[in-house]
Amino acid sequence: VHTSAIAIVGSRRCTTYGIEQTNYFSSEITQSDLTIISGGARGIDAASHRSALRHNGDTVAVLGSGLSVVYPPEHESLYNEIVAEGGALISEFPCHRPPQPAYFPRRNRIVSGLSSAVLVIEAARRSGALITARIAVEEHGRHAFAVPGRIGDNASAGCLQCIKDGWLE
After folding, report:
1. At what angle do helices 44-54 and 76-84 cross, to 10 degrees?
2. pLDDT digits over 6-40, tens only?
3. Contact, 88 vs 114, CB < 8 A?
4. Which residue, 96, 97, 106, is CA-closest to 39?
5. How far is it, in rounded angstroms, from Cα 22 to Cα 10?
6. Which of 18, 36, 165, 167 has the most CB atoms around it within 10 Å of its CB?
7. How far is CA 81 from its chain centroid?
């Protein structure tokens, strides 16, 4: 795994547009020889990991559970592929610890801390992806960027609001 990494985060309930943008940015990032860090969640996170693998890039999934607990369960093959292709799964939790809601903001802090910058692809107004971006900016002194998304689309409402408020680029 390379030392320079970009986090790609976003909605678990993403749109086709969000997946397209994730594939585009993941391709560009991996071609720049940067590692993609994300949280292994459904939606944008999984799309970023899959795209990195498809483009022969490095990717790291930061889990909100112990390493021997596959969450979400449908990502078992994705996690196996990440490891098989030389990426990594990491967690601060004991191996058999199941996921709990309070663990995901802690996971987001690690995603931000491991990354040089955070890119939010899609995020509603209340979103874990925005938590990750805010941690990057306020606690880690990193840059955070957002794909604007479509006006009036709830999937991008958080990105648009943060850009308007001036704390996401």
Report:
1. 40
2. 999 999 999 999 999 999 999 999 999 999 999 99
3. no
4. 106
5. 9
6. 36
7. 17
